[in-house]
Amino acid sequence: IIYPIQMTLRLRLALLFSVLVTVILIVINLIIIISYSDFRRSEFYGRLEERARTTARLMIDVKEIDHDLLRLIDKNTINALYEEKVLIFDKADQLIYSSIDEHTITYHPELISKVRKKKRIEYNENESEVLGILYNESSEGYVILASAFDKYGKRKLNNLLYTLAASIVVGLLLTAIAAYYFVKQSLKPIETLNFKISAVTESNLQEKFDFKEGPDEISKLAKNFKDMLERLSNAFEMQRSFVQHASHELRTPLATLTSQIENISKKQLTETQYKELLVSLREDLDKLTRILNSLLFLSRFNVKMEMEFTVLHLHELIIKSIETVKEHLPAAKIYFNLDLDFENEDLLRVKGNETMLLVAFTNLIENACKYSYDDTADILVRSIDNNLEIWISNNGGLLSEKDKKNIFQPFFRGENSYKKRGFGLGLSIVKRILDVHSAAIYYTDQNHKNNFIVSLSKF
């Protein structure tokens, strides 16, 4: 059974980096070898052509030099090439000079014709390089074939090949070692972060998480992880708080119901007393129903909801909400003003779910009336750029800084809610409805009033 090799990220990165550097070294070395090989070849052919032309000038132009003397000069010249051979052909393609007898150049009449046609050819014969040129310095039209072996140039090329191959091997080893060490040091903060992540549980989300801030990606990852822990901690804390408050709100009417039922079973009551107990039981059941309905409503926003959005007119929504509030609070006085051209209804169009927005505006207006000193609420709608702002204000007690921070939390009730009926769920429901509509809501005590400002996008 062959088991796959398990490689750590550190080893994979080191190998990848080493392979990448090796490929780059090989490409660079190939370029060097090809460039040097081309240079050696062109330089050698240049020297070969110079030797061929020098021999031709001496033989053709200097009449006092015979063939034997020319061979002697070619053989003993300081810059003689290794295994050098020069052949000169006249215009009738007859060989008229051969520099060294012991070294031969294989040639055919077709080769001479090819040189006359192209005027210059280069090719390899065994290990030697052969040059054929048309000598035009006289009117005779001589053809020269020169051949030699670049012993020293090829030796230098081979030495360069060995040197570059050795440098690749050594470079690969050094790169692998350096890459492994560098990757190890680079991933050390991630290993530390991974260790801390593995130690996180639901019971220690608030544990202090230290890291060095910096512009690098690892520091950003650590910061994002810390922020994520804080968000999770807040979410868990909100959930615990929600459960505690919900339990508390449900426990009170349940305990009252239990106590009253026990009294009914233990005591002999008159018909009037039974009726009073039934009315009280009904009130407690209504309270439980309202709490459960609010909790169910909130729970709908904890999962992805698909709601139908239509184009609505904002002033119609607010008017319907005002009518609903007056049914619950007949003594309420609500003043509605539009800070824009009322005749142009297109300025008041928004897109949303009518039922949800009616719930939100009804809760806001009802709260404004309920917590006002004189049961009065003011509503102002105005246009700000591409948004519609709805100001819902009252003259009730202003919220403290602590209340401002928690006002949209479920079951939270401010200091001004003393002796007011409610469960602290209305504003939470409003906030979640507006979040679904990508709308904003915030509180301000501008002009010494409680102002809830809703910002909706125009359609």
Shape: elongated
Order of helices and strands: HHEEHEEEHHHEHEEHEEHHEE
For the largest beta-sheet, the strand count, sense and barrel status come to: 5 strands, antiparallel
Low-confidence stretches: 1-5
Walk me through the structure.
The protein is α+β, with helices and mostly antiparallel strands and 459 residues long. The chain is 54% helix and 16% strand. It is built from 10 helices and 12 strands. The protein has helices at 9-61, 67-76, 109-118, 151-198, 217-266, 271-299, 314-328, 354-370, 401-406, 426-436; strands at 85-89, 95-98, 120-125, 128-135, 142-148, 310-313, 333-339, 349-352, 376-384, 387-394, 440-444, 450-457. The strands form 3 sheets. A 5-stranded antiparallel β-sheet has the order 2-1-5-4-3, sandwiched between helices. A 5-stranded mixed β-sheet has the order 7-9-10-12-11. A hairpin with a 6-residue loop joins strand 4 and strand 5 (142-148). Helix 5 runs antiparallel to helix 6 and helix 8 (354-370) packs antiparallel against helix 10. The radius of gyration is 49 Å and the shape is elongated. The two termini are 67 Å apart. 19% of the residues are buried. Mean pLDDT is 79; it is low at 1-5.
